[in-house]
Specification:
Blueprint: E1 7-15, E2 30-37, E3 48-51, E4 56-61, E5 66-70, H1 72-79, E6 92-97, H2 98-101, E7 105-107, E8 116-120, E9 132-135, H3 141-152, H4 154-159, E10 176-177, H5 185-192, H6 201-218, E11 220-221, H7 231-244, E12 248-252
Parallel strand pairs: 2-5, 3-8
Antiparallel strand pairs: 1-2, 1-7, 1-12, 3-9, 4-5, 4-6, 7-8, 10-11
Helix pairs in contact: 3-5, 5-6
The structure holds ligand A2H.
Length: 253
Amino acid sequence: EGVQPQDYTLIKMEVMLPFPPKFKTLEGRKVFLAAATLRPETMYGQTNAWVLPEGKYGAFEVNDTDVFILTERAALNLAYQGFSKTPKQPSCLAELTGYDLIGLPLKSPLSFNKVIYALPMLTILTDKGTGIVTSVPSDAPDDYMALQVLKAKPAFREKFGVKDEWVVPFEIVPIINIPEYGDKAAEKVCLDLKIKSQNEKEKLAEAKRLTYLKGFTDGTMLVGECEGMKVQEAKSLIRTKLIETGEAVMYSE
Ligand code: A2H
């Protein structure tokens, strides 16, 4: 962990009804996968959520109505930031693994795709954020590569019980223009660097650096309320709006 606290936006991705059997104890609640992001302005372009199959997650009571699914570590941090039913004390209603989350249909804020699905990503870290990541393949090289592999490899989908219809229909949504990289920056940079898989850690880190830097300094919003605005300006406006409407919460670690 760095010395500086990292300020994330937790995106509340609502689990749609009916709940699967494992969620029996959650009936009657509003249940969310809580995804930690540094790029709230990209939420228009979500195509899916990522979970770690072998990861340990819990369903934690945030208040009388809302339940967040995330790692216990994140639940404890949140409990100290005002997001737990009992202050400083996470209350877990169900213990879950990533496998229990794969295939959940989700309704996520700002997303042009009205329903998206939780899918497996093997490189998720459980000691960062919430262990849940929202996927924006237009602007995140990690998301682009992971989605490419899932789309290209039926055997990989089968291994994790991923149905074709959770993946195949989801196209990259252009949401930000970067003069050097166009409207699908992550795809362009991954192709330019000839990245073949998520295992190419160094190249992927370089792709992330390039898109992240250029996106922030030179990017312009192509969609949404901030259409035409620079990403730099749009980011905090969109973050504030998501928090005011209750579709997201602040989280730092
Ligand atoms: B970002 P930092 Cl469009 N494991 O959100 C792996 N990755 C994680 C994670 C975890 N436990 N928790 C969060 N992340 C991802 C959007 C996005 C992100 C875009 C572009 C770049 C980008 C959509 N995915 O991040 O190490 C989340 O992906 C590149 C830095 O704390 C989160 O923001 O700096 C970002 O990594 C946080 O990474």
